[in-house]
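Most newcomers find our protein records easier to grasp once they have seen one. Nothing more is needed to start thinking about how sequence determines fold. Here is such a record, shown just as it appears in the course material:
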Amino acid sequence: MAEPLAALSWPTPRRIATLSVHTSPLEQPGTGDAGGMNVYIVETAKRLARLGVEVEVFTRATSSELPPVVEMAPGVTVRHVTAGPFEGLSKEELPSQLCAFTNGVLRAEAAHPPGHYDLIHSHYWLSGQVGWLARERWGVPHVHTAHTLAKVKNRMIAAGDRPEPKARVIGEEQVVAESDALVANTRFEAQDLVACYDADPARVSVVQPGVDLGRFRPGPADRARFGLPPTGHVVSFVGRIQPLKGPGVLIRALAELRARDPGLPITVVICGGPSGSGLDRPASLIELAASLGVSDAVTFLPPQTGDALAALYRTSDLVAVPSHNESFGLVALEAQACGTPVVAAAVGGLVTAVRDGISGVLVDGHDPEDWARVLGRLLVAPGFRAELSAGAVAHATCFSWDRTAEELLRVYREAVTAHRALIAARVEAYAW
């Protein structure tokens, strides 16, 4: 039995099925449900393909005009699965379509010879539910990345936001219990998985996200590109417009700054589109700025694509990330890679993404007065900002998507090896 059992060892997967039910990697981050997870899937998939692993991403079709299969990059394809109506289906309604989505995933695999996929990697709990079922059918290991956790979000919920439903909490508990391996963005997320979801520590691996250091790098400011005043300070918020991300904290801090120093020239940029509970009142930030008398100092921009986003970071004196919860905070990392210091809430992955006092400043809590005090201190201290800028670039270079992909491949190899060893043990036991 020794030689056949040894032949079962399969350390490197040839092809993986990546599941992203609720948002497509082809969508523009910064609006709707598209955000850091989209960037994560795109960047890691491309680099895994360069390492010789073919990646097929399954996502729900949101338009009848979408082709069934799209090549996103060499070695990376996106499969659009029909599950429910194409438009008008919120993330909260998607659990009712998981059966249909799972059927589409299983049918795609059934069109190939057995063993077409060597591993499943699901992103977010909805995808985890599908991955759990596909794992049982295909007999391959299932790796899961939560990206956000309901119990943690509910513990740190923003004012005016809706708590995550019990169904999601139960769904996450099931996925955590049934996954062969769990990937956490930071050690804090790993601790939450163990403490809040009873995850087996031996199955949890920390793999930090990265940043595209070729695109996000220092360069000249270009205020005219965004219609910003040629002089004065610029503080930017980049992300989805929802209470969780805390953009209102920055606008309230702006009002505090003006009250303290009416002559301080400052423009706040809000870059992004409504998402989540922010869809209920998409004009809420405009109304907030008007009620506080700071509309003239707030510029709203739609989500920006790659090079334009990098240009906005470079144009900003500071980037504010006042989120109530972040599994990591890619915006903070991208801004720092461009040499822009970050002022961020001391929550979740932002404690890892920002080095307090070195690449930016972490703020405890979301009190606008505290934020105004920190922002004001930095805006009138160009020397300190220059030191933080240099520290920001140095800190960002510690992260890269290449390293993230290599670490993911290590997790995949370990999961495949453990799965094959389990099969071998069962075969050997049966032989006896």
Observations:
- The two ends are 11 Å apart (CA to CA).
